[in-house]
Task: structure prediction
Amino acid sequence: MAGVWILAEGLESGRELINIGQNLAKDIKSTLTVLTWQNDLSQELIAYGADEVLLLPELPDGQPLQAYIPVIVERTRLDQPEIFLFTATLLGKEIASRIAGQLGAGLGSECNGLRWIEEESALEMDRLFYGGAALQTVRCSKAPRMATISPRSFTPAARQEERTGNVIELPSPPASPVRVIERKARTQTAGDITVARVVVCVGRGFEKEADLDLARQLAKTLGGEIACTRPISQEMRWLPEDVCIGLSAKKVKPDLYIGLGISGQIQHLTGIRDARVIVAVNQDANAPIFAAADYGVTASLYDVVPRLLEALK
Amino acid sequence: MPDILSCYKWVVDEAYIRSGSGGALDLSMADYKISDYDKNAIEEAMLLSEKYHGSTAVITVGLPDDTKGVKDALSRGPEKAYFINDSSFADLDPEQTATLLAAAISTSISCDIIICGEGSSDLYAQQVGPRLAEKLGIPCLCYVQKVELDGSRLVAERKTDEGIEVVAVELPVLLTVVPDINTPRLPGLRDTLAAGKKPVVEFTADDLPPLNGAILKTTASKASSISRGGRIFGADAGGIGDLIQELKNSGVIA
Result:
């Protein structure tokens, strides 16, 4: 089976790729094959829409996940899929680029739109560039047409009952020259801003670290999470990188985003463009964030936040 | 004594991008710069060579006019530059750029460590580094935030989706580095003057194998605008009350 391939790192991101992959498989009148190293997910992936699962065998201790690349490349050469999709995680972007490098294949990075162009047998992909200041549309008509997809850009596929499909185990990869000495999980010091319903984001308008309590109180009152712009995590180091919003950091899509003391650099705006409602508080009426916001208050956050808290009591 | 090569791209400074009529990208005001992330790549090469007494060079692919970028890169410390240029090398796709770099490096340049930025600040496709490693057949470590050398063994901390991985590998290796790895030095007047005297080795299209056409074709590019029309509320208690009522009406707060 060639058709459309996806690499599923996990069930949640895999379901998004399955949804896109199924639509493309219909367009090219072919099937959907899911590659994964998650043995226990094989049957689930079939239930969600995979016609076939190519299972990557468990790696020996000390081997990084990138060790799978040679096996995937070999199978891709053999089966010649038309389209090959990945999630744009750090791992997905690296694996996709390295596979594309070996195959000399075209790869669209961090796409947020994909469509099949029948006349040219091309995969057309939309993405952002220039730090989010511009949109680019690219086409690739040579197989395998590859793309990494921004997480949470598409609806996840729904589970269907009584689906069947084959699970084929791929051979073990050769040992990678890279050895993993240690893995340190990120200590989750804050809530996950990518799934929060309300995000209160702090920017340079805050004069000192202790003042972040204002934002914390507002987030707590609204049942949301606190986030920040790049200078706050990278330069001031007042908040962990986990909660930094931007093009090369986290992208959020809450129901409500409240930006406090944020000017609205395009890189930051790119990270919040999918929020349902954007509220901006900044004393500079010319701050670019006001154009991107649904509602704005042009005043110091030090005046506005206490009044918000009072009114929300 | 590692030979260290860092790669950079001479790019349009996105701060100068304007939205023209009908959302067209207006680059008429644009100035150029070394891609931000590549400044970290050059700086890391300098830090490693200072610590482990290695040599440093930079390499780039561009148009013959991009000599200002070569001088800028050399003013940041590297001893030598490799400048792959041809008037046909405009708007290359990542596969083409990686192919050109690999051809020049594999035939003419000795290096133990190649350092790239995590992506370019224009396209940010994040592909050239990893593609180059595969074409050269050397190990690749991406999103590196710390590097140490122990003889011919390199130990790196790289960012992963779950946290950090500490990994070890024998040289040669290609690294892509994240911005937090260092703070690039600012070249002074003396550095700029010295840069003009450093050797620059050029490769043109004639020196390299013929290049295939782009596999990725750009069919449209336009300015992105996020415009929601921002309705402004007063900062007094009345204005704040109205704002909260509006948020309640739209159902985003209870």
Chain B touches chain A through 79 residues (CB under 8 Å). Chain B has a mean pLDDT of 94. The helical segments of chain B are 36-52, 67-75, 94-108, 128-136, 189-195, 237-249. Chain B is about 30% helix and 30% strand.
